Amino acid sequence: MSASAVPTELKLRFNGSNWEDLDRLIALSRFHFLQDDDNDDNEPRKCAYLASFFEGPALDWAASQYADQPALFESWDGFIVAVKQVFGVEANNVTALRRKALDELRWSTDVPVFFANFDRLTHQLNIDAHGTKIAMLQAKLPVSLKEELARQALSFENYETMRERLNTMWAMNPHKHVDAIPTRRPRCGNCGKRGHTASDCRKAKN
Q1: Whole-prediction pTM
Q2: Which residues of 118-146 are buried (b: 16+ CB within 10 A; e: fewer)?
Q3: Residue 8 burial class via C-beta count within 10 angstroms: exposed 0-12, middle 13-18, buried 19 and up
Q4: Which of 74, 129, 175, 181 is 20 to 30 Å from 8 at the Cα level?
Q5: Cα→Cα distances 143→66, 95, 147, 166, 186, Å
Q6: What gap in Å lies between CA 130 and CA 112, rounded to an integer?
Q7: What's the pLDDT tens digit per position in 181-197?
Q8: Distance of CA 147 to the CA centre of its chain
Q9: Own/partner pairs for 119-128, CB < 8 Å, 24+ apart?
């Protein structure tokens, strides 16, 4: 595959705000360069390859820089530094983004994907202690699963053991242990109250 070819199966893009995806794209680009000897000494080609995954504000910035300051594309390391500076990809910002993603991660019937995300985020945040990971995981479990663990008098000191047990329980009945998400009542665009729409609003009819 040539350096200019973009893998059609790669869905990652960087728009200037999804900082973690930028790190993934940089890593994927480096793996690609290892497979393509033509990139060894071709810094502009490396920069262009990474920029080919940009969209939105990030693409607009890269295009304007290529027109006004083409020298920026002559250094792979310099290009990455510039991108991170322009879009605020600082270590503390990325950490906050990962922490937010972990806090918002919710249990679902696709348990393997849930654990893949949970393990990735805890690893990136250097959360390695079994007790901490178990406590964070327990907080994300649906009520039905917590009740099942209590019924079986199951407690865990090892995170991997807990993960394997939950995976087994999911495999046996993937839909049993997911609590229904309550549907939010509609909010009226006229009076602002929930429970009806503007067309049914008494205030509007009066």
Answers
A1: 0.52
A2: beebbebeeeeeeeebbebbeeebbeebe
A3: exposed
A4: 74
A5: 54, 29, 6, 14, 26
A6: 19
A7: 444 566 676 676 766 76
A8: 30
A9: 124/98, 125/95, 125/98, 125/99
